[in-house]
Amino acid sequence: MQVTQYRLPPTALMPNSPYPLLHYRGLEIEPKASKFYDLFSQNGWRVQWIYRYGETQRSHYHSSAHECMVVLSGTATIRFGVGDTSLDMDDNTYGPAREQGGVEIEARPGDVFLLPAGTAHKTYNTSPRADFTLLSPGDGHGIDAQDPRAALDQVPLSGFTMLGAYPEGSSSWDSLKGGEKNFDEFRSVWTVPKPERDPVLDTSPQGLMGLWPDVDIDLQTAEAPQRLRSRL
């Protein structure tokens, strides 16, 4: 298995994180919901949803929780690290209406992404093409079923689908489109507590335990985004 890390500095709209985005490829696990439910659960992460993604979406981030996503079916491009600068979906997806920088990753079944709180992300160019919808029972903040594991395996997968999980005990995830917070407020996103275990690799230093070193954020001093970029 290969773990690739991407460092994404803050932008004018998006806080991103001092911790790197992690991309896990080559897991010898069938891309089946119950398989990842078992893996994430034993490592202290709670599965909360399966979404099917449409052709595109607005770039967004979660300010209160770290997020782990695994691709179950289909393929797509995921853009990380930058915000959209227009409400025109074609222009901010395929045109120039987005911030400079970021990284784009071609996602396929079995890929796992670990997003530190604040990481901007946007899924587009999905295949097979389908409408965006929540497939798992519940409201996206938990699996509303007596047997969540069994319920996940009963979800019919079509189009590009991902399963999402969050650390046990973390705050409920939110969804922000960028620009709501000023730079001073970015620091509250950067101090979301580090998880106790990696969702895939538990306490191995090959995962977040080694790749997310403890970061001392100076909460008394605001730095301009370009100054922080030079330190990451």
| Mean pLDDT across all amino acids | 92
What is the beta-strand fraction? 25-35%
| Estimated helix fraction | 10-25%
CATH architectural category: Sandwich
Please give the largest β-sheet: 7 strands, antiparallel
Structural class label: alpha+beta
Count of β-strands:
10
> For the CA atoms, what is the radius of gyration?
17 Å
Q: Domains counted in the coordinates: how many?
A: 1
The coarse silhouette is: globular
Could you walk me through the main structural features you see in this protein, from its secondary elements to its overall organization?
This protein is of the alpha+beta class and 232 residues long. The protein has a single domain, classed as Sandwich (Jelly Rolls), CATH 2.60.120. It is 17% helix and 25% strand. The chain has helices spanning 33-42, 89-94, 148-153, 183-190, 208-211, 225-229; strands at residues 2-6, 21-25, 45-53, 67-73, 75-80, 103-107, 112-115, 121-127, 133-134, 160-167. The protein has a seven-stranded antiparallel beta sheet. The chain has a three-stranded antiparallel beta sheet with strand order 6-5-8, with no helix packed on it. The longest helix has 10 residues, at 33-42. It comes from Capronia coronata CBS 617.96. This is Cupin type-1 domain-containing protein. Residues 60-136 form the Cupin type-1 domain.
